[in-house]
Design brief:
This protein is of the alpha+beta class. The protein folds into two domains: 2-77, Alpha-Beta Plaits (2-Layer Sandwich); 81-182, 2-Layer Sandwich (Alpha-Beta Plaits). Helices cover 40% and strands 32% of the residues. Helix 1 (12-25) runs antiparallel to helix 2 (49-63) and helix 4 packs antiparallel against helix 5. The radius of gyration is 16 Å and the shape is elongated. The protein starts with a strand and ends with a helix.
């Protein structure tokens, strides 16, 4: 299992400064570090548990508690979450599709992790806040019963930050290509 740490900051400048402190505090790899909608900043790091905990703590201290929207350290992250964040998910065969949409980046990552741990689903995409108004969404596939169980677990994990949950038992055949299409590809076709 992987370890993932995340901090969402209220301001871009503070986020850049605090992200620098995160990397200097411990031996971590940066997964993402960039502005997100609406005018916030997010940093995600991975490494061993102690390093990720130290990195996230340093970022929070550097930013100050009033500049942190939310943060977490997931010490037993499901193996599918990091590849989904990186956009490395394979195109599946014909399966049911589950979708979880949340009002925050942290909530959707925690929801995706819970979905994978709850049943035998495969994550397709995990998108956090970029060009979607600060929200996050994740998509996953599997048989209908597994997708329903995963959606239930993800919705519980998202809690009050859940915006919507969807199960599509028999999606149209080409939906998978659209669900895994990179955001850069989508942007270039607008």
């Amino acid at each position: 299992m992987s370890v993932l740490g995340m901090i969402e900051f209220t301001a871009i400048a503070v986020g850049i400064r605090a992200s620098d402190a995160m990397v200097k505090a411990a031996a971590v790899d940066v997964i993402e570090s960039h502005p997100i909608d609406p005018g916030k900043y997010v940093s995600l790091v991975t490494g061993d548990v102690a390093s990720v905990e130290a990195s996230v703590a340093a970022g929070i201290i550097n930013a100050g508690p009033d500049s942190v929207v939310e943060s977490f350290v997931l010490a037993n992250l499901h193996a599918q979450v990091l590849p989904a964040l990186r956009g490395d998910a394979p195109i599946p065969t014909r399966d049911a599709v589950g979708v979880i949409e949340t009002s925050s980046s942290a909530a959707v990552i925690e929801a995706a992790d819970a979905a994978c741990k709850a049943s035998a689903v495969r994550l397709l995409k995990l998108r956090i806040a970029l060009h979607i108004g600060g929200k996050g969404y994740t998509t996953f596939v599997g048989d209908v019963a597994d997708v329903e169980a995963a959606v239930d677990a993800a919705a519980r994990a998202a809690g009050a930050k859940l915006i919507e949950r969807v199960v599509i038992p028999n999606p149209y055949a080409d939906i998978y290509e659209h669900l895994v299409k990179s955001d850069d590809t989508w942007q270039s076709h607008r």
